[in-house]
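hey can u check if this looks right to u? its 270 residues, i copy pasted from the old doc so theres a chance i mangled smth
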Amino acid sequence: MKGGLRGAVAFAAALVVLLTACAGSSKVQTLVPGVLRVGSSLDFKPFEYFQAQPGRAKVLKGFDVELVQDMANRLDLYVRWVDSDFATIFNSLASNNLDMVAAATTITPTREQTVNFSNPYFLANQSLTVNVGKTPDITSTDNLGAGDIVAVQNGSTGASWAQENLVPQGVQLKRFNLTTDMFTELDAGTVTGVIDDEPASRAVVADMPNLKVVQVIDTGEHYGFAVSKSNGDLLRAANSALDQIMADGTYAKIFTRFFPGQEVPAQFQG
């Protein structure tokens, strides 16, 4: 993935903290005893996003959100979500401002130089989304060239892929902090396409009828939860909790809720 300050909700401050309750007193090492500070970009549906409720405050939902909450329950930790800029989120984690990053984050060798990752918990590819009303003839990245502008998210693996594969074709990249802004500009026709994680792109276009995912780009990415290199205790605990979640069928239930109709990958089944 992904990266960037994925804020579908406008916050008054650059950093917003949300607290999700869970159980008791934990022996797992965290910055604040008993509290798991989790950095994320909280507008990346279906992984972490706010859902409106008529007459009530928005509620934080998502695949990552439920997985982290279940992990925390098993470790007797409270979850404190910290809305963060993805472009700097790993440095924040390495500087011990966070305990964990849960942001649909692809495990890469470059990122592993700065932080440690849990065992993989999701498989993903990149994708090309276009405005079929304005550019119906674009069906793949092979159709892109000089004069085309493609939106990417700062710090994301999609941006890296586009830099390596599209810029040599003459394509201009327009970089965003907010993924929502990429699709808003595509809908308006000010960019030609968006390169972003396939699951997130499909979630967005479901509510934007002019937009369509026209190509899945096989990048074979694995998402992992990131933790500080200085906290091996938390890494071991997170991996143990993930193993339990997959073994007892909890992972499959959460996966089916957010990705209905898709088969749970064999490596994540108990």
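The first helix runs from residue 63 to 75.
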